[in-house]
Amino acid sequence: MRARVIVVLTGEPHPGGDVTGRWSYALLKGLAAKNYRVRCLACSSRPEWARAAADAVTPLGIDLTCHGYAHERMSIERKWRTVRAPFSYMLSDDLRRTLDAEVRNGYDVLQLEQLWAGHLANGHPRTVTSVHHLELLDLEGVWYASPRFIASKALLYATERRLLSRLRTFRATTNRVAQRIAQINGSAAVRTIPVVIDPDAFSFNAADRPAPSPTIGFVANMAWSPGYLAAVRLITSIFPMVRARIPDARLLIVGWNARTALSQYLGSPGIEIHQNVSDPRPYFEQLGVFTYPLPRGSGTMIKVLEAMAYGIPVVTTSEGAEGIDVEHGVHARVGITDRLTSSHSSIRRSSR
What is the residue range of 334's domain? Predict the structure, then answer.
């Protein structure tokens, strides 16, 4: 009898979508290859991505249902949901009812992907919650003189601690995330299992690569504090040193909300910023070096994996390489200081 796994995702498993789509598609593909019976329930905010996800995973034998986000009609309902289960806005009542029905039908493992999905655990046995990153690590030492930021950070911290203390079994994507979980919940079972992407989705032939370009930069979500801080560090500290060595160097930053978040740098010499692009691949291919000076952050950076899959030389920090089995100077250059990072990023041609 094939084991039955129920997987709950906080986004559509669309391999051509966002980073959640890429790793979640790889997860489902791997489970199918191991001959599990997989019932997948996914939160969805984009109907077109839900359709694309179904087209991608149905041939794998995955039984997928996508549910739209929760939409309370009255503000009092929204506030009450926030009090009871902060950051559960994507977990609709329809999804909860479907999950309850699937649990009653029997299962071997209930796999909740992302910590906020842990709100659905409800004491179900044989439940594992995957923790991909922690705001407790991402926002450590980060402060803005904004009451809204302070309140949001406090709520994030309290909710993560509450879920980590209540849940019993975790899969962490990196050892650092696993260590923080164990510090908060010493009785929990925690295992580190890296996140992956599907290499079949990335075609790379060294002969097809254009000549190395004097363009550095990265693709990331600027609505995420570490991504924004990495962009500011690259623009204000590292890129000027690169341009001092290579006068025609360009800086390319692409990501969700990038032009809005980095508006003060628009029009700066040599700097190009794009936001909310439908396909990041053409921008990856413009880069001579994927330079991601992440000052802090946790979990595996999917965009670093994607850059490697595209055959682009990578320069990053230890946080940027977290969870990836890289050897400095072989698979990537892992810099520490801005000057070292700028020196690595100034290399026009890297051996692959």
Answer: 204-345
